[in-house]
Amino acid sequence: MMMKQLSMHVTDLCNEKCGFCVVGSPLAKTDSVEYAELVQFLIANADDGFESLNLHGGEPTIHPRLMELLDTAHVFGYPEVQIQTNGRRLKDREFVEKLKERGVRLFVISLHGADAHVQDCLTQTPGGFQETIEGIRNAKRAGIPVRVNMVVTRMNMGQLGNICRLCVELGVDHINISNLHPVGSGYFALDMQAPTVAETRAHLLPVLDELTGQGHRVTLEGFPLCVVQPYQHLAIEDGSRFIRMLYQGEVYDNYDQFMDDQTREFGGPCDGCPLRSDCGGVYLEYAERRGWDEFSAARAGLAGTAADAAV
């Protein structure tokens, strides 16, 4: 069944400074987003059958008119709201309750470290880790489901298992693990922070073994499927969702299709790959900077898996 979601980038600004930020919030000095444009987008799509409204940024919880925006969404009949956030403002339980009263039914919370040392270094926000953890706890206390999103970097890849175990301990409902998309601030961090294909597989696959073996809900986002096989079925971009997004004045009528068509590509190793029809490809900047040899090795691994299965 197709999930239909309306999505809005509500602010460029953020209270963290992640060096791999896909929207480049650490570089933003002023906000390019006009509040009136957000309201107009809500009104224009109010009768189009969207099941949920997703708010993201930047950091949407620092928007000075967030409560007003949520009230407007309620007036125009959006059945539920999801907020993508670093969770720091959720340390305030009263703030969480106000969001719940205004229809927030899911928090998608960024968590990139299992401890303050790694998380606060990645976000360049001393004290942020503890606030995020308290925010997750408060969301769960309020009865609001939490999906954690973590971006795999060279700084945290050795902690992936511990991050996921922390999520389980906190009662997180869904763990989404994302490939680093090297645009925005992330373009400058690619060489230092983006793991190689071999590094990704070495650290990610054992974690997926553990999580799926224990029955936890886990998904993958932005990875070429050869990199995550045999867990390619966990890819979130599987054609089962339709997202219409407003981002800095531009409307993207099918976000997943846009990402596949405009931000990712296929190279020589992809020719004839059995996973290609379902795969979004490799981020343009990654292929430009590191080439395709890594993916030749990943493709060879696929061939080995197929041969083993045939025996």
Automatic annotation (TrEMBL):
Please indicate if the UniProt record lists S-adenosyl-L-methionine as a keyword.
Answer: yes
- Give all residue intervals belonging to the Radical SAM core domain: 1-224
Pfam families found in the cross-reference section: Radical_SAM
CDD domains cross-referenced by the UniProt entry: Radical_SAM
Which domain of life does the protein's organism represent? Bacteria
List the Gene3D superfamilies hit by this protein, alphabetically. Aldolase class I
Q: Which UniProt keywords apply?
A: Iron, Iron-sulfur, Metal-binding, S-adenosyl-L-methionine
PROSITE patterns (alphabetical): RADICAL_SAM (PS51918)
Q: Which InterPro entries match?
A: Aldolase_TIM, Elp3/MiaA/NifB-like_rSAM, Radical_SAM_PqqE_MftC-like, rSAM, rSAM_sf
Q: What is this protein called?
A: Radical SAM protein
